[in-house]
Amino acid sequence: MLRLRQVVLAAHERASVEQALSALLAASSGHRDPGVGRFGLTNVVLAAGCDFVEVVSPSEPGTAAGRWLARHGGDGGYMLMVDGPPTLTAPDRLAALAVREVHRAELPDVVDVHLHPRDTGGVLLALDAVDPAGSWRWAGPAWTGSSPACAGGLREVTVAVPDPAEVSRRWAALLDVPVVDVGSRLQLDDGRQHLSFTDGAGDVAAVTAVRLSLPGVEHRAADIGGVRFDIVPLEEA
Predict the structure, then answer these.
(1) What's the superkingdom here (predicted)?
(2) Which of 55, 85, 182, 220 falls 20 to 30 Å from 12 in CA-CA distance?
């Protein structure tokens, strides 16, 4: 099974974006990972059902996220993280697909590989293979080596790119999933999630919209950190 697990926003000022997202998601205190400091970042990871929304901000000059913010012209959806089988992260498979790795971490409970955006044609993409299933180290101790009881999560993510048809074909090969809906939409999580590519206004790829289903909520929506968030009750997903 392969599924979208985390959407990452890049923001010049993390605190205000974090506050707005926490209110929208009705999320408790998020997890702050000191490990992102090696990339010159600070962050927070907020639970959204069984999936997550992260906000990163540069803490020093010369970071990849900082350069993306400058090219994009403001806050926005910077990265997607996908949870899949171990074969997804195999180095020989990625080499055969002619995609470069910009980061690889191999830990007892997860293999985490970040792919070069110039080779994917889209936003920064992380491929993760976790053990046990449902765990997610990047969300903190409660999700490391186990999976708390949860329901709902990401249902659809929209990414604006210069060439939607070409990028959708590229990502279908990288994720080993089918392309549907006239070549611009991918199915994940056995059809429960969709990843859509649309025409972007510029030449910088960015996540522009996120749809989530969460238990015990009313339908609501908000524009936060350059991304349109749409929340629907779990029973309507």
Answers:
(1) Bacteria
(2) 220
CA-closest candidate to residue 225, choices 8, 5, 62, 41: 8
**One-letter amino acid for residue 159 of the chain:** V
Confidence of residue 182 (pLDDT cuts 50, 70, 90): low
- Which CATH number fits the domain that encloses residue 191? 3.10.180.10
User: Smallest Cα–Cα separation from 121: which of 73, 68, 163?
Assistant: 163
CA-based torsion, 175, 159, 214, 33: positive or negative:
positive
- In Å, how far from its chain's centre is CA 122? 12
Look at residue 183 in the predicted model and tell me its pLDDT. 63
Q: How many CB atoms lie within 10 A of CB 97?
A: 14
pLDDT at 202: 79
The gap from C-alpha 131 to its chain's centroid, in whole angstroms, comes to 19
Per the structure block, which two tokens stand in for 7?
Answer: 């959407």
List residues bridging with 207 in a β-sheet.
77, 159
pLDDT of 17-61, one tens digit each? 999 999 999 887 899 999 999 999 999 999 999 999 999 999 999
**Phi, psi of 175, deg, nearest 5:** -95, -10
Q: What is the pTM of this model?
A: 0.96
Domain that holds residue 91: 3-236
